[in-house]
Amino acid sequence: MFGRSLKLFRILGFDVRVDISWTFFALLIAMSLALGFFPAVYKGWPAATYWWMAIGGVIGVFFSIVIHELSHSLVSRAFGTGMTGITLFLFGGVAEMQGEPESAKAEFFTAIAGPAISIVLGVLFLWLGGVGGEDRTPLLALFDYLGRLNFVLAIFNMIPAFPMDGGRVLRSVLWAVKGDIRWATKWASGLGGLFGFMLMMLGLFAALSGGLVQGLWWFLIGMFIRSAAQGSYQQMEVRRLMGGVTVRDLMHKDAHVVPPSLTIGELVDKYVYEFQQTAFPVSEHGRFVGVVDTAHLKSLPREDWSRKTVREVMTPPEDAALADPAQDAIAALQSLQQGGADTLIVTEGNRVLGTLSRSDVMKLLGLKMDLESA
Ligand SMILES: [Zn+2]
pLDDT exceeding 70 applies to what percent of the chain? Predict the structure, then answer.
């Protein structure tokens, strides 16, 4: 879901990261504040003042989002759900959760915590901004803006479109009523998808009737909500179907292991073509010493195949994609997707137990989906 993200700092045990997409968003806010909003509301101030206010505005938006996400994370942690960190991206932030919440109650309070703190911040900033009456200094004008912004943040997030906060609140209520998280997720994410679609159509309509930039924004936000809603339902289904399946259950115990002294020519002739395996664990005296992947052989000139050995081209254990036999199969699949490798080597200590490829996980998932829908 995320592109490249940069870790900024750590607070209360959570990493705060910024995705590359957020920098565009920040730039857009700064420009629309300095050139649009502030000059329109507070006329006659020097251009430099508007820009300083805009920079303050971006910093304020940043901390408003961080505090919003942090309150989700803190409440979730209090309920015992593992949280990995906060990432700011596109037009907001995401508090990353490991797995589904424990109970409907945990989900309700975790979801409502963000908008609730945004309302508190909104009231606080509006009060600060109003201290000097209607005749505001630039600093008070900035506070007034941040007050409004936090209200927008609270209201936008409370739209009942899963996986947004409002959609999570809705899901927790449905979940509590019927006691079935799957049914609740189906309805909440269905509504989320519908809402996203409506926003896209509205954006298209606005764009065609003259409001091109605003229409485009609506369209993009709608598209984002729609795909997030669909993605989160699929993710839950995958977790449910694959729950309890470990790497040990799925791995190939009979995967062929090669010695490091083998030449590449021998590897290709005797192993790759023979067994049609794409990644081979390399083992010496029963110890795991590396991985040789056929993908890496392509860059090797053909005439070197008879001279070069596996030892010279293999990936050392510290750079190899490894899995623990007790690891969750879905977690292993995620690490495959992140690392870009196709096969994980399953090891215990320095012994090779087998291999696990993406297609093994997908095959079982396909089978389970097929049987469940019948
Ligand atoms: Zn939120």
Answer: 94
